[in-house]
Design goal:
Strand 5, helix 8 and strand 6 form a beta-alpha-beta unit. The protein is an alpha/beta fold and 310 residues long. The protein is globular and about 50 Å long. Helix content is 51%, strand content 16%. The chain binds zinc ion (ZN). Zinc ion binds next to strand 1. Keywords: Signal. This is Sugar deacetylase.
């Protein structure tokens, strides 16, 4: 009992004054924090404004339904579609890419030794397949193009024949993207034929964006195809550290505009690129969702392909 009494006395002596002191301190603090309050309010206001801004430009056709659609999209996680170009020739990094732990898209060049094998392997793994169609560049060596290339000097009939032959050569393709092609993607006549074939077959075209004056996106929209384009090349510098850096840009872009399309390559530096992408995925996986290009096209542009796979 005596011990208990001493304890109560002790509490009264030390705890009460301490509690009073803490309460007084709390009362005194808000004005001090108050200086920071407008900043906090401004910040959350800024976020709201950013959300509104995001919803507006993301609307592809304007109008109420697009805004509703954008609002729905912004409620979802931001999406990243990685496309791996230049498959079909047994290039370095092919196995490493196929071992990546997320869904992505492979772009397979036609008429090459592993074209059919790579497209089939991708399809069996549940990945999306594009035909990586060689297209004439403004500069560069013709031999970099590979077989079956589309050239601006071709007649309308020849362009059509090339596109159709490439599509027939790569199984499971749901669309086309351009290998090189800085000259062709700026050519309205040739792009008109490429896009017309896409439309006839229920496919879409992804502009790799090798030409900033590309007409592909605008022309695609004009005939009712989704204006899909690459935003960021991952491996313009050939180290895995650079690829990881680019993946962070991808994350930023995806969080800002709800989605991001990005391209990497198999090839001489394919293993470095694959390693960089793998590290990047580990960094990004909690903030974005990795999807195939088909999911992005379907959700972002509400475009449904009627493609019939062989
Ligand atoms: Zn390519």
């Amino acid at each position: 009992m005596k011990k208990g009494k001493r304890m109560v006395k002790c509490i009264k002596m030390y705890f009460y004054p301490a509690a009073v002191f803490i309460l007084a301190l709390c009362a005194a603090i808000p004005p001090a924090f108050g200086a920071g309050l407008p900043q906090t309010a401004h910040h959350s206001g800024g976020d709201k404004a950013a959300a509104v801004l995001l919803a507006e430009p993301a609307a592809p056709n304007g109008g109420r339904s697009s805004r509703v659609q954008s609002a729905e999209n912004s409620a979802k996680r931001s999406r990243v579609a990685i496309i791996i170009d230049d498959l079909g020739n047994g290039m370095k990094g092919t196995d490493e890419m196929f071992a990546l732990p997320v869904k992505f898209t492979v772009a397979v060049m036609p008429f090459l030794p592993t074209s059919v094998k790579d497209a089939t392997r991708a399809h069996e793994l549940g990945l999306d397949v594009l035909v990586h169609l060689p297209m004439e560049p403004r500069q560069g060596k013709p031999e970099w193009l590979g077989p079956g290339a589309v050239l601006t000097r071709m007649s309308d009939a020849e362009v059509r024949k090339s596109v159709e032959a490439a599509l027939d050569n790569v199984p499971f393709a749901i669309g086309i993207n351009n290998h090189m092609g800085s000259k062709v993607t700026g050519d309205e006549r040739v792009m008109g034929i490429v896009l017309a074939v896409c439309k006839e077959r229920g496919l879409f075209f992804v502009d790799s964006h090798t030409n900033y004056r590309s007409v592909a996106g605008r022309m695609a929209q004009e005939i009712g195809l989704p204006p899909v384009e690459n935003h960021i090349f991952l491996d313009d510098v050939h180290t895995s550290a650079h690829v990881v850096k680019q993946m962070r840009l991808v994350q930023e872009k995806a969080l800002n505009q709800n989605y991001c399309v990005t391209i990497g390559h198999v090839g001489i530096h394919g293993k470095e690129t694959a390693a960089g992408i793998r590290s990047g995925i580990a960094v990004l996986k909690d903030s974005v969702e990795f999807v195939g290009i088909s999911e992005l096209v379907k959700d972002q542009w509400k475009w449904n392909s009627r493609v019939t796979l062989p």
